[in-house]
Amino acid sequence: MILSMTGYGRASGSTGLGEMQVELRSVNGKHLDLKVRSPRFLFPLEPLLQKEIRERVSRGRVECSLRLGAGGSEGGQLRVDEELAEAYLAVAHRLKAKFDLQGSASVDFLLQLPGVVTLEEPEVEPGALWEEIRPIVERAWEAFNAMRHREGEQLEREFRARLAALRELAARVDERRQEALQLFRARISERLKELSRDVSLDEARLAQEVALLAERTDITEEVVRLRSHLEQFEAALGEDKPVGRQLDFLLQEMFREANTIGSKTDMLVITRLVLEMKTEIDRLREQVQNVE
């Protein structure tokens, strides 16, 4: 089953710290690029989240964020050391009187002094908190994967439609294959006869050389390989594992075969069919970039 690399899921639930929200989002990428965002005091949970994501996602740019809702202790508690503030003020007044200084201490002055106001972050026990958060993460995963499945189904429908178009084009090329070969042989034979009008040539040797030249323009193997790649591509659509890289590789090979077919024959009809093939393959390659 095809999975899109584009997904979004969000879930929330109660924890000992308050209402916790887990958000997952991803876009396409060649490799797994993982970022976890959380309040500083939740940093110990990040390796656990990263492990969960790496076990479930093979590539793409994935972001996971943890946030506490209103009333939660995400910002911690501010602690004011009034005794320290009084000590600072006493020193300031003493220095002002002794050195006859101007000015007065303000709130801004006090807030900038080290130790007067400190942030006390909540203490967490990673294992216990993870057990609280895990069910929320699971619900976020369900929503995240549901979106990836929906988009994957749309991609698969488009892939199958374009595969059918490519099979039809390959069949039409195959129908013209013998005709193209015969035309090439006839043209080469005629050209060689023109060049050797005043020269005595061995007819058997001439026929052999024509056959060898014609063999180089035979596109049978390329058509067979192209059909094989199409079959492998369709089979991969039903596999229960990430297949994006495999599909991308198969499309590169399809494009290679189409290029070779185009270079081996100058028959106008086949040339036009090859151009259509390349267009369909390019459209597939663009969409495959969204497949995990």
Features of this protein?
single chain, 61% helix, elongated, 8 helices, 4-stranded mixed β-sheet, 6 strands, alpha+beta
Structure description:
- By secondary structure, this protein is α+β, with helices and mostly antiparallel strands.
- It is 61% helix and 14% strand.
- The chain has a four-stranded mixed β-sheet with strand order 1-2-4-3. A two-stranded antiparallel sheet has the order 5-6.
- A hairpin with a 2-residue loop joins strand 1 (7-15) and strand 2.
- The longest helix has 70 residues, at 126-195.
SSE order and pairing:
Elements: E1 7-15, E2 18-27, E3 32-37, H1 46-56, E4 60-68, E5 77-80, H2 82-99, H3 107-111, E6 117-120, H4 126-195, H5 203-216, H6 220-237, H7 244-264, H8 268-288
Parallel strand pairs: 3-4
Antiparallel strand pairs: 1-2, 2-4, 5-6
- Shape descriptor reads elongated
The fraction of residues in strands falls at: 5-15%
The side-by-side strand order for the widest beta sheet comes to 1-2-4-3
Q: For the terminal residues, how far apart are their CA atoms? A: 11 Å
Mean pLDDT: 85
- The helical percent reads 55-70%
Order of helices and strands: EEEHEEHHEHHHHH
List unreliable stretches of 5+ residues.
71-75
Major beta sheet, specifics? 4 strands, mixed
Category by helix and strand content: alpha+beta
Count of discrete alpha- or pi-helical segments spanning 4 or more residues: 8
Rg, nearest Å: 35 Å
The total count of strands amounts to: 6
Regarding quaternary structure, what we see is single chain
